[in-house]
Amino acid sequence: MSDIFLYDTTLRDGTQREGISLSADDKIKIAHRLDEFGIHYIEGGWPGSNPKDVEFFQRAQEIDFQNAKIAAFGSTLKKDNRPEDDANIQMLLAANTPVITLVGKSWDLHVTEVLETSLSKNLEMIADSVAYFTERDKEVVYDAEHFFDGYKANPAYALQTLSAAAASGAQVVVLCDTNGGTMPWEIEEICRTVAEKVDAAFGIHTHDDSGCGVANTLAAVRVGAVQVQGTINGYGERVGNANLCTIIPDLQLKMGKSCIPEDMLAQLTDLSYYVAEVANLPHEKNSPYVGASAFAHKGGIHVAAMLKTEKSYQHIDPSLVGNQKRTLVSELSGRGNVLDKSSQLGLDVSSDQAREVLAKIKSLESQGFTFESAEGSLNVMIQQMQPDYEPPFELIDFTVVVEHRQGRGILAEATVKVRVGDEVVHTVADGNGPVNALDAALRKALIDIYPALADVRLSDYKVRILDSESGTSAAVRVLIDTKNGTREWSTVGASVNIIEASWHALSDSMEYALLNGARNQIEAE
Description:
By secondary structure, the protein is of the alpha/beta class. It has 17 helices and 16 strands. The chain has helices at about 25-35, 50-60, 85-95, 110-115, 120-135, 145-155, 155-165, 185-195, 215-220, 245-255, 270-280, 300-305, 335-345, 350-365, 375-385, 435-445, 500-525; strands spanning about 5-10, 40-45, 70-75, 100-105, 140-145, 170-175, 200-205, 225-230, 295, 325, 395-405, 410-420, 425-430, 455-465, 475-485, 485-495. It is elongated, with a radius of gyration of 29 Å.
């Protein structure tokens, strides 16, 4: 039995984030994953607001969710309407969900200036709407919109709105910090008053406009909230909603509050990445618990201490939430960083070799390279410094020509000469730009010898100007992301010449592929 019930509104509130647009298929996929994870309530959207939400609710009726109840969201009836004549109320009923979430006004400002009705009439609208659904055996969640702003303006009336919903059968009244501006100590004090004066279970729904969304949620739980509303990855309108990917481990690991099955907590990071992928958004590296940087360690003193005991610089074991420790190597590193990173990469490095690698890293980073986000180049560098290292290829020279030809536009051509073992290969290739031509020429030189490189694809190419004040003579850093099936790696190059910087990153990318799989595959064949 859970101490806290999780109510996910990613499919409704989350889609109000700028840049998110989920199809009905996307919503169904996310709902399945939320259900498998153990979320108790999944808010699917606002029936009738758009065709995708209509489709979602129709399809959801055919799905046997194992853990979650699907909720349809909508507002209380309009003034001077009866429930049976109110279009919004009837669309909620038609969604045929076991749970109905009704949002109503708790701030007298909104009642008089937005709804343009009286305070007493608003109470009737809340009561009549809730009663209509409870009489039809629906579980009703009442969302008290702008509750904390309303309480601060007129505490007696704000409490009356909750009591009106509770008296009409709402199973839980949810206190919403809709504008996201309330502080944690205010949340705790007001929620304590609600617990004392309103005869109903209460929940909490916060936004992160003041950076306190998670803290405000936990403050409410401290004084009795039993339902927590939020979104995966904190997606939501403006700066977002309270982030369930932070709240869930905070509740379970820090506060001792059961909210999901213990064995599912280790799926949290996967869930976070999955929703980001479906939403077509980059995953936030700096997210607590689930971000790639959440357990990444860069400082030499930190890593040296963690080699003795990981608790010295980690607040939890990353595996509890499905994440992992990462050691970063940079100019701020110590020998321990290199030794630990080499071990993670499956490479055997001596203490003296680690010092040599570290010295080279610090020299290169002073020239504009960076290795903390280019572990492919770091891997190649460490292997190059092994006594038995044999390069899969060596550059002899390259030429890149870019020209404008009348009637044909811009053309790029690259010539590459490389040595592979005792053989010298000399190739030329065209491209839609100088870097593309260089990539094509290098692949052409290597593909007959290493045919597995046909499956290696560049997935991203980024250039950063390192000293913009130097104008067109500025040094640049090039980062290249490469894929081979499901495997990904990043490589780096830096120079005052963008072609040279690109070559460093390109050749490291190919060498990494050959040193870590593709070359072995050819030799085995």
